[in-house]
Amino acid sequence: MREQSSGAGGQRRGGGRPYGRGGLGGPRGGHGPRGRRVPPREHPGRSAYGEDRPRAVRTGLAAELRGLEGAQYGRYKGLVGRWEMPGGELLELVRGQSDPYAPPARVALHVPGRLAALPPELWRTATRRRALSSYLARQAAHAVRGEKALRVDAGGQEVLERSSCTVSGEDGSVTLRLGAALPGHGRRIDGREAERLLCQVLPRVVERALRYAALDADEVQHFVETVEDSVALRDALDGLGLVGFVADGAVLPRRSGVDDRPATGSGVVPFASPDALRVTVELPHAGPVTGMGVPEGVNLVVGGGFHGKSTLLRALETGIWDHVPGDGRELVVSRSETVKLRAEDGRRVERVDVHAFVDHLPDGSDTSDFSTQNASGSTSQAASLCEAVEAGARVLLIDEDTAATNLMIRDARMQSLVAKDREPLTPLVDTVRSLHRDHGVSTVLVMGGSGDYLEVADRVVMMDAYRPSDVTARAHEIAAVPTGRHAEAESFPGVVARVPDPSSLDAEVRGRPRIRARGEDVLSFGDHEVDLRAVEQIADPRQVTGIGLTLELMVRRGMLDGQRTLAEALDLLDELLADGATGPLLSIRDEDFAVPRRFETAAAINRVRGLRMLR
Description:
Blueprint: E1 3-5, E2 30-31, E3 37-38, E4 57-58, H1 61-67, E5 81-84, E6 90-95, E7 105-111, H2 113-116, H3 126-143, E8 150-151, E9 165-167, E10 174-180, E11 184-185, E12 188-189, H4 191-209, H5 217-240, E13 242-247, E14 254-256, E15 259-262, E16 278-283, E17 287-295, E18 298-302, H6 309-317, E19 332-334, E20 338-341, E21 349-352, E22 370-372, H7 377-390, E23 395-399, H8 405-408, H9 412-417, H10 432-439, E24 442-446, E25 459-464, E26 467-470, H11 472-479, E27 495-497, E28 508-509, E29 512-513, E30 515-518, E31 522-525, E32 528-531, H12 541-556, H13 566-576, H14 583-586, H15 598-607
Parallel strand pairs: 4-5, 18-24, 18-25, 20-23, 23-24
Antiparallel strand pairs: 1-27, 2-3, 5-6, 6-7, 7-10, 8-10, 9-10, 11-12, 13-17, 13-19, 14-15, 16-17, 21-22, 25-26, 28-29, 30-31, 31-32
């Protein structure tokens, strides 16, 4: 028996510079004879789980590089370690480069707090450190602009927890991690260019981007306060009975599908809340802010095509992340437990209880313990919904454009033509109210073609030329007219908690871990290519890397141990990565990554084609 669960860059101020936008492997433990756990191989200079060991600090890097002029390229590896620089910072060559065509070397710049001189009020909380780190990474990315050999992962419109730049909560010291393609003449070392790059350019990056004296004080303060207001607003939603908030004056449209910056021009309509839904929230820095509160329950967004329905939903979808000043969505937030769902033809499903939506299949399959290698649109969406609730989702977002129609609705005429005992699918319209009433899971649904949802909606918002209005009363009047349709279910029964088999989540290929991101769509994890195209809340390709490292961490640390449910393992993960900790993931591999949420991590686990669930 499985365990039952009820489910439950914008423009800078002050004429400054723009904020900018931006093969993995590593040590891993395994299982020895008779299933005994073998400790993971240690990262150089770290213990098995990343704690720093005392390491000698060397001097004279410039002379060393000049002395390597013309030497075999592989001699660069002898420079791995920490080097004291004339300005007092440390330059660490974390990972060398075997030849000019190999992935770039990994370099870290460690700036002590006394040199960075960042005011303590800028880094006193985890939220402020994340914001400050993001700001500094963007400054560093600008400082290396024009240096093709150097790459700083600064990110885009979202302010994410990244490995590229971290600020210590103990003394305000800064660590910047970046990629460096070490120079060479063919397969010979170009020592003089390496000296310029490491001993002249990187110290200038420290001076221009990582020391407070070089920063625009007002700008960095505004950046940090913008993020802090966003977090405060999101934290306030639960107490206000809301699942989302869209500030008056927010700019929701983006420039294009490949440019996430705010749209500009005379045709852009700033958001303005309907009076009936307008609420005011007091924020630490912005003060009283008004906007549309999206209440708990069943929310419907309707309107004609191209009038802004999906744009509003997309803003709520990305409202789980904080945004840079000037993005237009700085004060558009959703609860952190919000998950976007869609149909996903062809995905694998492993032992998910979908009988609330799919039952009495013609082949007699048990849908209370359902598996398939090639799910249809309807079964994939049903599985994704149950998996999201299992992982702890409290808000579900669904757009009819990307949903399976036959899982969303079955109207009166179709009910008359096809008897229920011949139709295995139970539409969401008949269980969506129970999701909230019995399990505390709210929904926001975009609907342009199915009026049957008017009957079950608690609130209906109409988008007309990007302007919202509350049409709930009129919608309920229309829904009061009988259509002849009858409900096909009385309740959503809840989800079943599953236990993953950790041995089915093995990243090793020929004895080495293989974890590699391909954009935002694919994660190579061991022998498996994990398709993440339908996981729409991944905001950045570096989060895909973060997901791969997180899966490896969960196995390595025994969070996935063959006894804990997936939800219990995710709880342990949240505890380990609380307050913006990147160290545990860096212990797997010092690489550019952004920390994912538990929901994107769970989605990736569920899409590993070799996944086995023990119960």
